[in-house]
Fold HDL563Cp.
Amino acid sequence: MEFINWIVYGLLINGVLGHVIPSTGDELLNNDFSLSELVHITDLPSQWKLLNDAVFDEGRVILTPKSGSKGSLWNANNYKIDRGFTIEWTFRSVGYFGKSKGGISFWLLNNAKGDNPLPNESKYDGLQILIDNYSNLESTARAVFSDGTKQLTRDDMYDQTFGSCLLSYQSSSVPMTLRLSYDPAQTMLKLQIDNRVCFQTKHVKLPTSNYRIGVSATNDETTESFEILKHKVFDGLTTGAKLPNLKAMGQPHLVTKRINYETGEEQLVEASPLEVSGSDFSNVELYKKIDRLEGKVLANDVSHIANIVKNLLAAEQENAKRIAAMEKFLEVLVSKSGDENKDISGSKELYKDFYQVNQNLEKLFEEQQKIREANKRHEALANSGPHADEIVAKLIIWLIPLGIVMIIMAYYTFRIRQDIVKAKLL
């Protein structure tokens, strides 16, 4: 019986120690910049500021509590960005559904100061994530960068969007979580909504600086109420931010009307932007093909192979210069020793191999030039770049004979010098 108890005890220990709970990123949570338990507090911490009509009520921050109102929530402290981070906002919109000039914006402002870091929402220095239902695409989430040098209208924000997705957010009792993450090692900025990717880009590098984090909203004379339920800031990338991009948010689809001239029948079909803007069908197909090829080239970058070939060409040119200098030296030796030894006077026959080296080198340079041009074509339009092993294999095939020839040249040079010495001694 005691033996059985020990077995059960061992299994329990193994089960406890062997089951590793995956990290959710809570160990990275920065409590000074987070509001993770609003339902358990009666008042906001002192570093949080409510502006305009915003109120804190029953475990939530209501930014637009009444018709025609606006409000914002800001952390009074500066958050220094010198590493990766993750910001999560849990919010919802209730009380209205339909087109409106109102909306909610999430902010990351560079070097903003004062209790109100955003006195003018159309002129700012930083990142804005705007969620509204006013554009031609209706309900969307979009991201805009501005350097604070000029005023931005709503149309300017739509035109300068660098990432967006469709988002049905209005009149929903179910909150949604917006997650913004930044990885400086890959210069990747990613926006996820309920663990689905809205957009991501590797062309953003946030400067190391102090930032103000906040959220603002307006309902433009409607009864729409924007509410913040949670706000979390993590000093690093959380597990959720590292999720694979298996689920993506919806993106706009363009449709075009096609009319059958014989029957007059109308049909709406999905079309690409190229088809909508193009006037010639063949040209549109060509543009689409180029677009696909460009994507494949970017996915199969062969620029590193071109650099390898370029370095090999430089090395071969240096070797060619050395061989040319050696040939001149040997010709001088032959001309000086022509009267001393009759056998050496006929030594030019021995140098046919050296002249053959020039021909081999010319062939090698021509072959390498072809490889170089092929790589350039692959970088421009090729479906996929050649494998580096194939190029290296071809170069080795040419370099092995060249090495053998150079060994033969060294041998003949040694023999000639010996013959010259013997001739002088005689």
